[in-house]
Amino acid sequence: GELSGLFATLILWISNKNFTSGRRVFLFGFQSVNKLWEVVYESLITGFCWGLSYMFVRRGLNPDTRDKFLEKYWKDAVYGSMAGFNAGFLKAVLKNLIPREAIEDAAVSFEQRHLRIVDWLLKISPPQPPTI
User: What is the C-alpha separation between 104 and 111, in angstroms, rounded?
Assistant: First the structure.
């Protein structure tokens, strides 16, 4: 359909326009395939460690949840491990794709807008009598 053609055109344009920047987009912002696999490996270890500590520390050592804890809570450990992997991987990807300067500029801009909103609210709010 039209959407798949548009998507394919976009991919070809990115890959042919500037090979190095297009390749970095396909590698989630990493410099090489080896660096990408290193981050995937570290994220897998993070998820695995989270799942083990959840099962045996949070559930197995707790007297209230110790009875048949492996049967009862294995799904929680699996889903939590996937969330740990996702958090670790996305953190590394976003750190590569979004420059630090962009975040700092956005924070300064947000702070300036926030201060203007606070000033505006203080101007429209009636003065409060002092409390003793």
Answer: 11
